[in-house]
Structure formats: C-alpha cells, structure tokens
Amino acid sequence: MIEKRIEAEMLKKLNSLEKSKFRGAFHLNQKMKEYVNIKGLDKIRKDTYDFINSRLAPAVPKNDGKQTPMRQVHPTFIAMHANGFCCRNCLNRIHHIEKNRNLTNDEIDYIVEFIMLWIQKEINNRI
Q1: Which DSSP string corresponds to 58-82?
Q2: Residue ranges making up the domain that contains 66
Q3: Would the CA dihedral through 63, 65, 71, 74 be positive or negative?
Q4: Other residues' Cβ atoms within 10 Å of the Cβ of residue 102
Q5: What does the pLDDT profile of the chain (127 residues) look like in tens digits?
Q6: How many CA atoms lie less than 13 Å away from 118 in the CB half-sphere?
Q7: In total, how many domains does the chain have?
Q8: Which of 3, 28, 14, 16 lies closest to 109 in space, CA to CA?
Q9: Could you tell me if 117 and 14 are in contact, meaning their C-beta atoms sit under 8 angstroms apart?
Q10: Do the Cβ atoms of 80 and 51 come closer than 8 Å?
C-alpha cells in the first residue's frame, strides 16, 4: 500500500496527464473493465509487475519505444500509455526516471502503484 502523501502526488500527476490530448485519450473499454472485475486487482497487479519487469525495467529494453501494445489486449498496457510508462523515453520525460540503467525496486513499485491507481480510477469513474 502506498503512503497517502505519495498517493496524493500520484493523483496530482494523474490529473495533469488526463489533460493531455494524447494521454487523456486512453481509457479502458467495457471489455477491459470486465476483465479487471473478473480477474481481480491482485491478478492485475501481478501482471503489471511482470510487464514492467520484462518490458520497462532493463537499462535497454528490447524494442524500446515499441514494446507496449496500444490495442486493448490488457488493461496494464492501456495504463502504461495513458501515464507515460510505455517506454524509457516517456518514463524519463514525464516521470524524470533516467534511461540507460536498470530500474530500482522502488521505481518499479512506484510505476505499478501509479498504474493500479489509474486502473482503479477508470473502473470507479467510468462504469
């Protein structure tokens, strides 16, 4: 669980990203919302850790810039695009996490919690 102060900072950044024409255009469709409800948030969180560790955490991810699908294949991928976790360039530009080094466990936790916050917001606000 994240601290209230950190969650408040995440919500502030999340609200800012929603105002972006590009980032704000990403939303979970009804099928993705149903997927989250069927699988549960614990499963989505586990999947998110797996995706971040394999696709974003390495210093030089395979196919960086193209490693995150944009189609509705998993709610985490949509959240990654909506929040600037889709590649190391966006991660650096939006979240100021430098490139060309492995992500720390704290950074991975931050990314996963941010994504989960976005998914929960999507589920609660747009059903």
Answers
A1: SSS-TTTTSSS--SSS-HHHHHHHH
A2: 4-125
A3: positive
A4: 11
A5: 567 777 778 888 888 898 889 888 899 999 999 999 999 999 999 999 999 999 999 998 887 766 676 676 899 999 999 999 999 999 999 999 999 999 999 999 999 999 999 999 999 875 3
A6: 30
A7: 1
A8: 3
A9: yes
A10: yes
